[in-house]
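User: My collaborator sent over this chain with a note saying "see what the structure looks like." That's all I know about it. Can you take a look?
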Amino acid sequence: MVLQLAVVRLLLQACARDGLSSDVSELIDGVCRQCDGWMAYKIGRQAARFSHHALASAIFARLTLAVSTQLRVSHPSSRHRLSYDECMEDKRKEYQSCLFCVVHSDLHIRMSSS
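Assistant: Without extra context I'll predict from the sequence alone. Here is the result:
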């Protein structure tokens, strides 16, 4: 299992700049489903560390369902919520960037046609 964690960490780190492809995301999700809760938690933390918040959110949501007591639910639940919020923030920034480009290009077209 330690080797799997190291390989997953390397994959997450290698994809930190460009984002995870669906194949890599499915591979890591499959590893999380096969390992115990502690190892899945460690993979979720690594995913959040390297800004793969959608994957981290999914891992922590699954861990929230797997724990047995309310006391133990709070930690993975809060990690899930934090990762989900970070994922939505990334998408909001991406949307704002696209909107800025559209407005800027529209302004450029209007100025050049005048």
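A starting point for your reply to your collaborator: The helical segments are 2-14, 22-34, 37-49, 53-66, 70-113.
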